């Protein structure tokens, strides 16, 4: 595992964008696994800026996102599909048909999980998976105590997550109760993983995930067993590491 320290959030974003951009320059038909959330926003912004300058071509890239809320239409403001369109896909020359998220409106949940997993396989697997990590160590929507051998599945969101999400919806009833997520096994099958982390509020969990026991209680701890992980984090997130 490589741990790369950046001075601040902007620096973290530039370094992570450099790694993604190198992947796309070296392998223009890469399959990128992508994440939503606040951490990668600046990474997508940086990639879009380099695209505008003519430095990166996404025309042959394919993408699969980690997760999506069940029940939300792709056009819903809070859907992860919409997040990806607004923050990244609409700003670069990626072919929309080559971008994939679980279908929040699928009527058969199990079939949708199987379709998504099969789709990832049919693309030849993920070349580089971008990840963030939650305060409790979750990756994707794999919350603590989720089995490590899960593939794409539907997750019942816990009360804390529902309450945290409530601010984005007009009423508690509108907050999605379930989400589709790649499982830990799916994530671990990616050939390379790039974990981005910023902020002092993530310092403890990042330290636990990278140096503590590998346990489903800290889902991100599984990354210690992956052969090709790069962590790009800012100084605050790495406060508990003694890096030279
Ligand atoms: C996003 C995802 C989540 C986030 C995690 C961190 O697709 O799967 O695991 O990466 O919740 O979120 P932020 O970046 O908002 O702190």
Name every ligand kind in the structure. Answer: fructose -6-phosphate
Q: Strand pairing plus helix content: what structural class? A: alpha/beta
Approximately what portion of the residues adopt beta-strand conformation? 15-25%
The CATH architecture can be named as 3-Layer(aba) Sandwich
Note the overall shape.
Answer: globular
| pLDDT averaged over residues | 97
Work out the count of structural domains. Answer: 1
Put simply, the count of helices is: 7
Number of strands: 10
Summed up:
The protein has 244 residues and is α/β, with parallel strands linked by helices. The chain contains seven helices and ten strands.
Give your account of this protein's structure:
Strand 2, helix 2 and strand 3 (62-65) form a beta-alpha-beta unit. With 244 residues, this protein is of the alpha/beta class. The relative contact order is 0.19. The chain has a single domain (2-234), classed as Rossmann fold. Helix 1 (9-26) packs across helix 2. The mean pLDDT is 97. It starts with a strand and ends in a 10-residue tail after the last strand. It has helices at 9-26, 41-52, 80-87, 109-122, 159-165, 184-188, 203-211; strands at 2-6, 31-34, 62-65, 67-69, 99-100, 128-131, 153-156, 178-181, 192-197, 229-234. The strands form two sheets. It has a seven-stranded parallel β-sheet, with helices on one face. Helix content is 30%, strand content 17%. It is built from seven helices and ten strands. Fructose -6-phosphate binds next to loops.
């Amino acid at each position: 595992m490589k741990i790369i320290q950046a001075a601040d959030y902007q620096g973290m974003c530039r370094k992570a964008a450099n790694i993604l951009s190198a992947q796309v320059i070296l392998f223009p038909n890469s399959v990128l696994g992508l994440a939503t959330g606040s951490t990668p926003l600046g990474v997508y912004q940086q990639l879009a800026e380099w695209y505008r300058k003519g430095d990166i071509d996404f025309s042959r890239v394919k993408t699969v996102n980690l997760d999506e809320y069940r029940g939300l239409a792709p056009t819903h403001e809070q859907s992860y599909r919409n997040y990806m369109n607004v923050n990244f896909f609409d700003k670069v020359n990626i072919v929309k048909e080559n971008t994939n998220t679980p279908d929040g409106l699928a009527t058969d949940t199990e079939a949708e999980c199987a379709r998504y997993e099969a789709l990832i396989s049919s693309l030849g697997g993920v070349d580089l998976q971008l990840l963030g990590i939650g305060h409790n160590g979750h990756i994707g929507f794999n919350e603590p105590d989720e089995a490590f051998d899960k593939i794409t599945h539907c997750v019942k969101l816990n009360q804390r997550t529902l309450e945290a999400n409530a601010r984005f919806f007009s009423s508690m009833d509108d907050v999605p109760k379930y989400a589709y997520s790649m499982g830990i096994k799916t994530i671990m099958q990616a050939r390379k993983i790039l974990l981005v982390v910023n902020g002092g509020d993530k310092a403890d969990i990042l330290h636990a995930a990278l140096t503590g026991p590998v346990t489903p209680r800290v889902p991100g701890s599984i990354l210690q067993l992956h052969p090709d992980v790069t962590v790009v984090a800012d100084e605050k997130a790495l406060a508990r590491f003694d890096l030279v």
